[in-house]
Amino acid sequence: MADQEVEQVKDESILESVLDKIGEKLHGDDSSSSVSVDDRGFKEEVQSKIYRLFGREKPVHKVLGGGKAADIFLWKNKKVTAGVLGSVTAIWVLFEIVEYHLLTLVCHFLILVMSLLFLWSNVSKYIKKSPPKIPEIVIREDVARDVASAIRTELNVALAELHVIASGKDLKKFFIAVAGLWVLSVLGGCVNFLTLFYICFVLLHTVPVVYDKYEDQVDSFAEKAEAELKKQYATVLSKIPKGPLKDKFH
Questions:
Q1: In 10 A of CB 209, how many CB atoms?
Q2: For the segment 121-157, what is each residue's pLDDT rounded down to a tens digit?
Q3: pTM score of the predicted model
Q4: Helices (H) then strands (E): counts for the chain
Q5: Are 120 and 131 a contacting pair, CB within 8 Å?
Q6: Do residues 219 and 50 make contact, with C-beta atoms less than 8 angstroms apart?
Q7: b/e burial code for range 69-94 (CB count within 10 A of at least 16 → b)
Q8: 132 in Cβ contact with 117 (< 8 Å)
């Protein structure tokens, strides 16, 4: 009888210890999950308070489209980006430095390619080598429709923006458009269109990658500059006299 009571007491103590461990484990998981949730919320709050240039909320790669074009702009594939930049530079040198004309360049290029293919096709019979396999290039109808549809969509968006600006519904967009066109007119008076396009192309392949590398430093400088501009703007406004207009007319 005494042995049964001792065994019952041992079983109850073992059961209580197991239940205590399970409870501690559950409380520990709850506390860790609550801590992780609190940490996540704290990180999101801190990130929301960090100043980003132009109010940017997405990474630079996403802002640039997030596709292959963004990879090229950010030098993710250095060989492809260097090839694109080198090709455009060569074209700019041919037109601006060498002073080639577009029609002349296209004709000379076609003459060179056709002459090489013609010689290769005829000489291959005598040197016992296979003639060049010239692929037949055909533009498919669905590809042409997709390109035309994409161009039509972009043109409609641009025309809609112009309609909004011209109708006077958005004063901010109107002043931005006027300022942008004025800057372009000034630049157009200094350089020709091809040089302006080349400068913009080079900037598009250098500025984003530099900003992506020194993002925090640039954002910090931009925040200070914006604060200083707002301070100067408030100072100018405070110096403008604001007297009652009614007293001047009586």
A1: 16
A2: 888 877 777 777 877 888 889 989 999 999 999 899 9
A3: 0.56
A4: 11, 0
A5: yes
A6: yes
A7: ebbbbbbeeeeebeeebeeeeeebee
A8: yes
